[in-house]
Amino acid sequence: MMTERTEKNGTRQPLLSIITPAYNESANLVLLSERIKDVVAGIDTDWEWIIIDDHSRDATFATIRQLAGQDPHIRGCRLARNSGSHTAIVCGLEMAKGDCAIIMAADLQDPPETIPQLLEKWREGAQVVWAVRGKREGESTSTVGFAKLYYWIMRRIVGLDNLPPSGADFFLLDRRVISAFCNFRESNASVLALLTWMGFRQDNIVYDKQARIHGKSGWSISSKIKLVVDSVTSFSFLPVRLMSIVGFVVALTGFIFAGYVVMNVLLGGKPTEGWSSLMVAILTIGGMQMLMMGVLGEYLWRALDE
Q1: DSSP 8-state class, residue 112
Q2: Distance separating alpha carbons of residues 92 and 120, to the nearest angstrom
């Protein structure tokens, strides 16, 4: 394990932490290791590579052990159960010792050759640097469509305008951002959304997301749906507000219909026996219940927001 940072010309070299969540990526890690070493050999910084095995079913952790045994810059960790890439990222950030950290996937879709561009933006003063996707090679139309829909919801409905419109799985964080991020203990929030919400000085570069060489993505439909639900409920009160509005409208409809029934009786009309009173009760009571649930939801949201 690397514990000291080298010095050059009497000054301490900044330490770069590269964090890679990996799930069933044994075939890609060796190739990724070679490319990362080629890149860091040409930059003026120390480095460490932390690989988090998200309880893979293949030889991913054995490959991590092998790589760590060959190079002291590499460290690994295996999660006790499959918890998802976002949990793996959080684990890696808590282990990172660097002055900045770059989070990149193990599938080689995010080219390590982009690292110098991220570091350049960081040295210019950016505390969060997004590698924004330009082209997306080798991905299905449904995957691209879901990604566009997700980021449109996050930007236009949830209100995180600074979130890159085409998404960013690849990004750099300054040490101050890492320290602040690690104070959060939310287990069901999107890492990207939380980092955007936190603020700090943000910048971006554009890169082309490459086609996967080995294996297939672990993102299932259920994982994607969970991400949307977690992201919306963690950063927006819109569902609670909609519940209050719908409850108010239903209750108002009940009161208006009750007024109509009463006026109809006073004016000598003959409403259908039993039906009118039943509908008034259902609309009024149901609407009031929805409205009260919405009010309770507003208080719960404010507690979460605090």
Answers
A1: G
A2: 22
Here the tokens at position 95 are 């282990």
Distance in Å from the first CA to the final CA of the chain:
39
Segments in the chain below pLDDT 50: 1-4
Contact, 46 vs 110, CB < 8 A? no
* Distance between CA atoms of residues 168 and 30, nearest Å: 24
Report the SS3 class of residue 21.
strand
pTM of this prediction exceeds 0.90 = no
Ranges of H-type helices in the chain: 26-40, 60-70, 85-95, 115-123, 141-152, 175-181, 191-198, 221-235, 238-266, 275-305
Taking the C-alpha atoms of residue 77 and residue 61, their distance in angstroms, rounded to an integer, is 8
Angle at which helices 221-235 and 141-152 pack, to 10 degrees? 10
CA angle 279, 284, 287 (to 5 degrees): 120
